[in-house]
Amino acid sequence: MRKLYIFDTTLRDGEQSLGITLNVKEKLAIGRQLVKLGVDIIEAGFPASSPGDFESVKTIAKELKGVTICGLTRAVQKDIDVCAEALKEAERPRIHTGIAVSPVHMAKKLNKTPQEVIETAVRAVKHAKKYVHDVEFYAEDASRSERDFLVDIITKVIDAGATVVNIPDTVGYSTPWQYGDLIAHLVNNVRNIDRAIISIHCHNDLGMATANSLAGIRAGASQLEGTINGIGERAGNTSLEEVIMAIYSQKALYGVDVNINTREIAATSRLVSRITGVAVPNHKAIVGANAFMHASGIHQDGVLKQRDTYEIIDPEVVGFPRSMIVLSARSGRHALKYRLEELGYNNIEDSLDEIYARFLNLADLKGEVFDEDLHALMGNAGKEVNGMSIKQLSVTSHGAANAAATITLEVNGELYSDAACGDGPVDALFKAVDRIVGKPVQLEDFALKSVSRGSEAMGDATVKIRYKNSLVVGRGVSTDIFEASALAYVNALSKTRYLD
Ligand code: KIV
Ligand code: ZN
Asked: Which of 55, 84, 223, 482 is at a distance of 20 to 30 A from 313, taking alpha carbons?
C-alpha cells in the first residue's frame, strides 16, 4: 500500500468561499484541530494576497509543528519571496506555486504563449527552490489542458525541482473516468514522474469532486487536496472527510493507506462550520446531522437487529456518538460533561459550572435537551464578545414596517441603553445596537434557523457585516430569536476589532 498524503486547504481554497473571512486567531484554531485530525499538509493561505493572510501563514508556520505548512503563490517572484518570508519559522515549509495551463486560460487570462507559460513555471519553481526543498507546482485548469503540453510542462517543472505536481480540475469539469485517465496518462508518460508525488485537487461544480478524487487516487495519485465540509470557491472543493471515509470503507479498492484520526472528523467539521458561519446541510455525507439517523420503521428495525444492515460506517469511527442519552433538568453535571466530551468538547473542567447553569436554564425551558441544543450551547459559550454583552432587550412590533426596540449593552463594564425604530423588530434591534456601538458597518446578510426540535427550539442566527471592506461573521444562539439575532450582531461587531 502506498501512503496517501492528506493536504488540507480549508484555510486557503476553503476561505475563498463567498462570504468567509477568517482572522489569524480563527485560522489558528482550525489549524490546531487539523493537526489533531492528523492531516499531513496544511495550506495556510496565500501570503502575498493581503497583510492579513501573510500574518496568518506566519503565525501558523510558527505555532503548528509536526505538519507541513504550505503557502500559495502565483508564478511570480515577488509572491514567492513573500511566501518564503511567511514560512520562515515553519518546521516543514512548502511553497505551492503554479500557473494556468489550459488554452483558454493561457490565451485569455494570461495572454502568454504555451512556451512562455513553461518558462514562467520553470523560473518560479527554481526561484522557490532557493528558499525551500519542498516545492509543489500546480497546473491550474489541468483537466482542460492539452495532454502533450501538460506532460511537457510537468516534466520540466520536475526537472526544475518540483517535489509535488498538482493536477487540478479547477472548474469541476471532469468526469471520474476522464480524471482517472488523465492521472494515469501522466503516470505513464512523464518520464521523471518517479521523482515527484502527483496531487489531485478537484472542485465540485458538477457534484463529482469526491468521485473524481477517488478516480485520481486509483490511477496513481498519492496526495489528496480538499477542505473540511467541502467549502471553497463556487460549489466548493472535494470534501476531505468523504474521500477519507470512502477509502476507509473499501481500502482494497484504492491501494492506499491514510493516516487520519477519523474520530476527530465530526469535531473538525463542527469547528469549521462554527468559525466560518457556513452551515453543514443535514443530509451532507459523513458530517451532516442526519448522516447516521434512521427515520423509517423498516430501517430502524434493521439497524436494531444488526447495525450494518443500513449503516456502512460506525458513527463512532467519525466521532459521532452511537448512544442517545437524553439530557433533562434532572441530569447532573457528570452526565452533561460526559455527553459534551462524547460530542468532542474537551477541557471544559474550568467552565463546567457556568455551562451547567446555562444548561439548566435551557432544560427548564425545553424539557429534553438534544445534541443540537448542546452544540448551540457550546457555540454560544465560545463566542468572543470583547467586553460586550447584552443585559436586556425588548421589541415591539405593529406590522413589519412599524417596529421598535430597546437594548442595554454592557461594554467594558459600563451599561449603555438605547432605542430605535426599524423595518421589523430585527432591523430595529440592530439599529439600537448601532446607536450604542457607533461603528460604520454595513449589514450584508442575516439568517435565522432552528437548531433543534419542538416549539421551544433554539434559534441560531448568523449575521454578516462589512467593515473596512472585509466581511465579518457573527453567530448567536438562544431560545429567544430576537436575542439570538442581537447576540449574532454583537458578536460580529466585537470581531471588527481585528480590523482596527
Ligand atoms: O483550483 C485550483 O486550480 C487551485 C490552484 C490555485 C491550486 O486552487
Ligand atoms: Zn482550487
From this structure: 223
